[in-house]
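re: ur question from yesterday

yeah so i grabbed the chain u mentioned. its 168 aa long if i counted rite. heres the sequnce exactly as i have it in my notes:
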Amino acid sequence: MGNATARLHPDKIFKAENWPASCLTRKRQTKPCPPSKHNYKIGHYRTCAVVGNGGILLGSHCGADIDAKDYVIRIDLPALTGFEKDVGRRTNMTVLNMDTPKRLETSSHLKNRSLDVYQSRLRDINGTALLASRNSQPYLTKALRRYNFSFVLLTSARSYKRESEINP
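ran it thru and got these structure tokens back, copy pasting raw so excuse formatting
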């Protein structure tokens, strides 16, 4: 895991010098603050759960087992609320597919907020790490500012154009 994680880096917008002043003091926060480095530690863990979003866990009652793991990775912003019994509640990192950042950015513009499926999903994982391709950074940055949630955005150190360039 060390070699793979060495290729990731936090997005520049989360450096302390860009944080609202209230995040750097004990004052009441007026704007969302980026999560601390301790909330998104990537490293070695004894147990890990990687949870997809295909619905195969419906009716499984695996939620408690998933939440009991040391680190929980979710794939592509699945719905958690209402499904906790089957898919758990905890999330440490969410891996986004190539199309999700664009859909997030589009949904963040919807005037009718009830049509936006992503707002509640982002609320469920607020304060965790998002892993996305480097090319999706502009879409995510715009969308996450509109949603007003805090995430650590991790991107690949370079853009992967071919499947063969991704280290299995």
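noticed a couple things. The mean pLDDT is 76. also Helices lie at 2-5, 63-67, 84-87, 100-107, 118-124, 137-147.
anyway ttyl
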